[in-house]
Amino acid sequence: MIRRTWQAAMIGLARSATAKRFMQSARATSFLRDKYVAGADISAGSARAVALIKGHGIRSSLFFMGEYVDDPALVAETVGHKLTAAEALAAADLDIHVSVDPTQIGQVVTPDEVEGHARTIAGRIGALAGNRQGVHCLMLDMEDASVTDVTIALHDTLQDAGLPVALTLQAYRRRTWDDMVRQVERGSRIRLVKGAFAAGPDLAFQTQREIKANSRRLIDLMLSSEARERGFYPIIATHDTALHEHAIAAARHNGWEPGTYEFEMLLGVREDVARDLAARGERVRLYVPFGRDWWPHAVRRIGENPRNAVLLARSLVT
Ligand code: FAD
């Protein structure tokens, strides 16, 4: 209950334009930016991606920040940054893996243009990937419940067009079991997260206990023998070490070799755990945000754990 209330408050702060203006201009908050964000531009993002692979064998997904973008000019600029990210990753000979929120490429202002923008980005990734080894894709992040259907439909359309695309599904949503069954049948690439948004009890599980139980059930489906036979690619995106061990046990039991599935975590959150998994031979990726619009991303991270209140308090009093 405390956790849900805290998370809802932080989601409110993430969406507040006033808080964003204030926090992004305040020098005291810069340590939050430095904790969760690689830097202001693509050179900082790709430099961090290179350092992660060279230092720890950890792959990256680059994310140019921004969410719920309501200015068409900014949508166009964001698409440009996603293309630049793909090119920088290709130039560095890394996985061409770029994460995108549908609301940053027009879902709020120009919904008719979202598919075109997504096709442009995924098409460029496909062209740059050519015959290179690696995991190359446009990864669609999943936002609040109002955009779930359009995000899944966008994924399916791009996938049917043969473009390199992957999709995020959230364990806190009650519908996700059915969505996951469909995606396993389609042999998709799916990133499972617990969910960083709030929704009522009709749509979502409310307690951590329920969300965790649903995560385990979904991991069992994602790492089943049937999913492996269909060419499904599971991505377990959590910092929850009990879920990591659950996934590894399911993988071993059902004949998944390390490297045929992956773990993904966020830059700045429990990176020691990511390094340990990589050292054990697991495929690990970090979600590496870059750009200037860092407040919504950082405050969502604060919202993930009431104990992070101390980080927020520090940013307000220093
Ligand atoms: P938790 O139970 O929250 O955490 C597990 C452990 O990690 C706990 O010990 C906890 O204290 C620690 N921990 C977790 N977060 C933090 C933190 N910020 N600071 C310090 N310690 C922490 N959500 C969406 O709704 N849509 C998305 O598209 C999406 N994409 C994501 C992509 C990736 C790669 C990841 C890793 C997460 C993404 N999320 C997304 C966020 C996700 O839904 C959760 O809010 C977040 O991952 C926290 O849940 P957890 O699974 O790590 O478990």
Automatic annotation (TrEMBL):
GO molecular function: proline dehydrogenase activity
Record PANTHER family: PROLINE DEHYDROGENASE 1, MITOCHONDRIAL (PTHR13914:SF0), PROLINE OXIDASE (PTHR13914)
Domain called Proline dehydrogenase: residue spans: 51-309
UniProt-listed Pfam families: Pro_dh
The species this protein was found in: Roseitalea porphyridii
Biological process per Gene Ontology, one example term: L-proline catabolic process
Keyword Oxidoreductase among record annotations: yes
Classification of source organism: Bacteria, Pseudomonadati, Pseudomonadota, Alphaproteobacteria, Hyphomicrobiales
Keyword Oxidoreductase attached: yes
Keywords, alphabetical: Oxidoreductase
Protein name, UniProt field: Proline dehydrogenase
Family matches, as InterPro entries: FAD-linked_oxidoreductase-like, Proline_DH_dom, Proline_oxidase
